[in-house]
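G., the chain you wanted modeled:
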Amino acid sequence: MSTDTDVLVLGGSGVDTIVYVPELPLPYADSYMVRPGIEALAGQTGDFVALGVSALGLRTHHLDMIGDDHEGDLIRALHRDRNIPFTEVHLPGGTKRAVNLVGPDGRRLSLYDDSRSREADRLPEALVRKLASAARHAHVSITYPCGFALSTLRATGVTISTDLHNWDGVNPYHEPFAHEADVVLLSAAALADIERTMLRIAERGRAEVVVVTAGADGAYLLVDGSIHHVPAVTPPAPVVDSNGAGDAFASGFLFGWLGGEPPQRCALFGAVAGAHACTVPSGRADFLSRDELLARADAYASPPQAPDVNAVGGAT
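Predicted structure as tokens:
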């Protein structure tokens, strides 16, 4: 089947106000002087995945609801400047936004404004079907109202991926995304039992691959009933900002997966892309190109630096 798009990204557009703080958690004080300056920047999870896979040479289209406001203009400009097709649906509550506090070690605390969405918000079914029918793959952000589009995407035959972010493995909001996706990514940040959560996702849904990222501890990869540990990649420069690192990991992983690479190689691509993202201030939105990613992955995989991908568990 002929397609116009490799990756259709649904949802995840927004504007972040980045504040670099002297430490996290931030002790109470009447005021702090912060540098560099505070700035509102276009780019949340869906935007960053779209930028990441596009930089890797995949034909990308982004669909989301944004407002007719200044923040929406920032989103439009970001996609226009990066030559990424963006289809917008009006969001009456205004463009989504967050304030992200970033510590000296690059760790982030995100204060997400969840007041923008309304129960009636929907991505039009006919529009989703049209764009998905012209795509190889759909990456679905967990932002409202993307969950309502999952059945339509599935009916078109595209493969689906999602990032559950800091899901605790219990919150029912995330379950439709976890159970409908072929590739499921999430962070270990809120998981009490990484292995049990990964196995439950695979058992209850249709995921071929489940990936849990664990920062400096690397990642965990579930494929064919076995869980493997993927060591972290050492960042090529000092860590300054972890904003977008998970989205970069997802982009690298999807690049490999859509290219038919083995899951372990896909995870290495993700780890390399995520490590690079930590060395770049989020406002630069600087993602690796295909050639850069392949060169760094090949260098990392060559002895004596080669990380062993070790089995750590499996279905019982």
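Residues 311-316 have pLDDT under 50 and may be disordered.

Shout if anything looks off.
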